Amino acid sequence: TGGDTDEYSLVSPGYLSPLSFGFLVVLLGILRVYSARYFAMIGVVTGRIVPPSYQDDAARIMTLGALYQRSAAPVVAGILVSVFMSWPQTAIGSSVNAFILWTVIGLVLGLGAAALTLRLRFGNVGTNTL
Fold first, then answer.
1. How big is the chain by its Cα radius of gyration, in Å?
2. Which of residues 48 and 16 earns the better pLDDT score?
3. How far is the C-alpha of 120 from the C-alpha of 116, rounded, in Å?
């Protein structure tokens, strides 16, 4: 009795507060807007860069890549979360495991973007091959 309970112990496990739901709606909306902008821009850029004889092949590769990403991303995310969140909790708590997980994800994505940027900048600049 008294001070043994905190504000979170009274909430059922499946409860999602209206504020949390609103945050998720806004976040998903922002992600969808930027995703639509990305795919529109990549289509325009591909049409300008790729020679007409390769545009059909480039469209097929982009479609297969998008489909692969949509099917593989949840599996990879599930594996990463299950590995990092199943580690024994440290004295600080599970927030350290979450920090390590997001650090790994950030490093992988950052290194991938840096490698692609360097390849595009210093790679085969004058060639039009796929």
1. 22
2. 48
3. 6
Return the structure tokens found at 91. Answer: 């004295």
Is 1 a residue whose pLDDT tops 50? no
Of the candidates 57, 58, 60, 66, the one whose C-alpha atom is nearest the C-alpha of residue 38 is: 66
Q: Are 76 and 60 in contact (CB under 8 A)?
A: no
Is residue 84 within 8 Å of residue 97, measured between CB atoms? yes
125 residue type, one letter:
V
